[in-house]
Specification:
alpha/beta, 472 residues, seven-stranded mixed sheet, six-stranded mixed sheet
Length: 472
């Protein structure tokens, strides 16, 4: 891994960490969703759906903490992918302050459970054991066979129905480390870390890039497309600022998705793709800054254009990263010419910085982190009224708008009304006289004058009638 001193990874040290582990299909993701209060992890009867560590911030009885969902322990991890999933669970337990191991009350005791309990006895941190899927009084009897493992306490829960959660979580929260300091007083404005979403087509190198950025194997990487199925959230800091890194599932054309689980994760990442138009919300919406990976050897595809059009329409900060630059054919490896080809097809996002990287080797990743910092600053920047209006006057003076109904369109003043992305309300004599072409000119001019790199700019128009002087 390359050394990036600016990047500090892992959950915030102020928040304790709870890792939920267990065999495949015992209900870990259902438990995770129950505590998260929303459907963040994909849930299905097919074992092995969760492959990576999935993070979220949760709260119980006023105590905030980081919750980690994991893939399952396999008795014999034969394939390389299964071994990597097993390693993800091990890493989650290393990060955790408290570990919760879930048994399957419906399937009963498994030989692997005995081996795992023996391993967890050697862990020097609090470990809780709960039998999931105990959703009726007759099933309470299933609890006793798990005491044969020599456990002093076993909790009966039903993550699907929320039964038994209170008693378990009260005990878990009581063993969290004491907070380092009291949270800051409420200021009336909720400040949250920006989300950086890594998106792109399948097998373009998203998870490799996430692991490279974080400095450890956060996401399972495999050569088979579609390895990442959930959108994975990881808190981290960049240049001293907190962020949440989102590694979304790969996105491919809907017609080519046969596996129903992969189809669901694509809907989570992008929304449904119908006749090439992206229509519904998904994980891309959760990103504030979207890092879109292009496949260097393959170049820009129609699907890349669809993803970026959706992100731009939703007002996301954008960074384009050409991955696998180290294996691009020599005759195509001219950065200037390659950049021109990219923006010839993606002219509607020509405001986005473009960097050339190799997520596998680390080439160019420092440039990428600096681009993310610049775009994040632009995306949430507030501009004082005086410099904003000075920039507006200079842009309008350089190229005045055409006449509207035979009259000049007069600009009075502008004010910033929102961030995420920067949004400006401009007062003019005739809002209908501002054509789309002239609005694009203004956006481009203001972005240059105000140095708002990588972020869309939204303009709203208001009329202001000139009031005549009142005479007595």
């Amino acid at each position: 891994m390359i050394q990036m001193s600016k990047l500090d990874t892992g959950p915030s040290p102020r928040l304790p960490v709870l890792a939920v582990v267990g065999r495949p299909n015992v209900g870990k993701s259902t438990f995770f969703n129950r505590l998260a209060g929303k459907r963040m992890a994909i849930v299905d009867n097919l074992p092995g759906i969760t492959r990576d560590r999935n993070y979220t911030e949760a709260e119980w009885d006023g105590r905030r903490f980081i919750l980690i969902d994991t893939g399952g322990f396999e008795a014999e991890a034969e394939s390389g992918l299964e071994r990597k999933i097993h390693e993800q669970s091990q890493l989650a337990m290393q990060e955790a302050d408290v570990i919760l191991f879930l048994f399957d009350g419906k399937a009963g005791l498994n030989p692997l459970d005995r081996d795992t309990v023996a391993m967890l006895r050697r862990v020097k941190k609090p470990v809780f054991f709960a039998v999931n899927k105990i959703d009726s009084p007759p099933k309470q009897s299933h609890l006793y066979e798990f005491y044969a493992l020599g456990l002093s306490e076993v909790f009966a829960v039903s993550a699907e129905h929320g039964l038994g959660m209170d008693a378990l979580m009260d005990r878990i929260v009581a063993l969290f480390p004491a907070p380092a300091h009291e949270p800051p007083a409420e200021t009336g404005e909720v400040v949250r870390p920006l989300c950086v979403a890594v998106v792109g087509r399948p097998n373009v190198g998203k998870s490799t890039l996430v692991n490279r950025l974080l400095g450890y194997e956060r996401a399972v990487v495999d050569s088979a497309p579609g390895t990442t199925r959930d959108a994975l959230d990881t808190p981290f800091t960049l240049a001293g600022e907190p962020y949440v890194l989102v590694d979304t599932a790969g996105i491919r054309r809907k017609a080519k998705i046969a596996d129903r689980i992969e189809r669901y994760s694509v809907i989570r990442s992008l929304g449904s793709v119908d006749r090439g138009v992206i229509r519904s919300l998904g994980s891309v919406d959760r990103g504030d800054v979207v890092v879109h990976l292009l496949d260097g050897p393959e170049g820009v595809t129609d699907q890349d254009a669809q993803i970026l059009a959706y992100a731009a329409e939703r007002g996301k900060g954008l960074v384009l990263a050409v991955n696998k630059w180290d294996v691009v054919a020599l005759e195509h490896k001219n950065p200037k010419a390659y950049r021109e080809r990219v923006f010839h097809k993606l002219a509607f996002v020509d405001f986005a910085p473009l960097v050339f990287i190799s997520a596998l080797s680390g080439q160019g990743v420092e440039d990428l982190t600096r681009a993310i910092e610049r775009v994040a600053r632009s995306y949430q920047r507030r501009i004082a009224t005086a410099p904003l209006n000075q920039a507006l006057r200079e842009v309008v003076r350089s190229h005045t708008p055409p006449l509207f109904q035979g009259r000049e369109v007069k600009f009075f003043y502008a004010t910033q009304t929102a961030i995420h992305p920067p949004t400006f309300t401009i007062f003019v004599s005739a809002p209908r006289g501002i054509s789309p072409t002239y609005q694009r000119y203004l956006v481009h001019g203001l972005r240059t004058a105000l140095r708002l790199q990588g972020t869309p700019i939204r303009l709203f128009w208001r009329s202001r009638r000139k009031e005549g002087r009142k005479r007595r």
